[in-house]
Amino acid sequence: MEKKPISKNELERYDRQIIISNWGLDGQLRLKNSTVIVIGAGGLGSTVLLYLAAAGIGNIRIIDNDILELSNLNRQVLYNEDDINKPKALLAQMKLSKLNKDIRIVGINETLDEKSADKLLNGADLIVDCLDNFKTRFLVNRYCINNKIPFVHGAIYGLEGRVMFIDPKNEESPCLNCFYPEDIPPMGKFPVLGSVVGITASIEATEAIKYLTKIGKNLIGEFLVIDGRLMKFKSIIIKKNPKCKTCGVN
Ligand SMILES: [Zn+2]
Least CB-packed of 45, 106, 174, 238 within 10 Å? Predict the structure, then answer.
């Protein structure tokens, strides 16, 4: 694909991040020429998408098969009351296109499963997990390991958030299956506080942007737990499991 240069308008729009140490025009160009897929346009997805679009990721694909409900509005900050009963992927595409007309945003109102994974996830430089269930997370984990696509895992429960970065190109990087058993049962309705979703999603977006601009160090092998009740951030070191059925050496 042809690399697009930075325009005068973009220089002005991204001025305050281009001057970040080690970012520069190179960092901005990397974002502009990147394709990021955000899976889930709910609570985590709302904030992740806002920051990725604002930062100038050139190509954003949004996968979500859900319609907006009133009970989503305590945390899904991309939407408002007029959006109820409309598909989130298409709403997100419309809203983000107004935020940044210089980037390409495609919302896909489809279900991600084993059959659709290749079609929906191809061409990604990075994937962001903004899901609410482990069944689809494990599918994304497998897809990313098999296709060597880095991905940011994020999850929330009540006042707790969790983030980890999985880089299948890095031999030290554990995957979700290295420490989570695959038989985690569906949770059904679980408690969520919007502001903690926002913190967790902001960390996911930061990890994605850092990776693409090649700035700093990602949460590889390090599970960040945000304990909103005590407002403590804990890092749990996770080692790659050589017997892992997804990323281990068979
Ligand atoms: Zn693994």
Answer: 106
Q: How far is the CA of 243 from the centre of ligand 1 (A)?
A: 8
CATH number listed for the domain at residues 8-237: 3.40.50.720
The domain limits of the chain are 8-237
Dist. CA 178 → ligand 1 center (Å): 4
Gap from CA of 241 to ligand 1 centroid (Å): 6
174 by Cβ neighbours in 10 Å (0-12 / 13-18 / 19+) ranks as: buried
Check: CB of residue 41 under 8 Å from CB of residue 49.
yes
pLDDT tens column, 3-36: 778 999 999 999 999 999 999 999 999 999 999 9
| 130 CA distance to ligand 1 middle (Å) | 20
pLDDT by residue (tens digit) across 220-242? 999 999 999 999 999 999 999 99
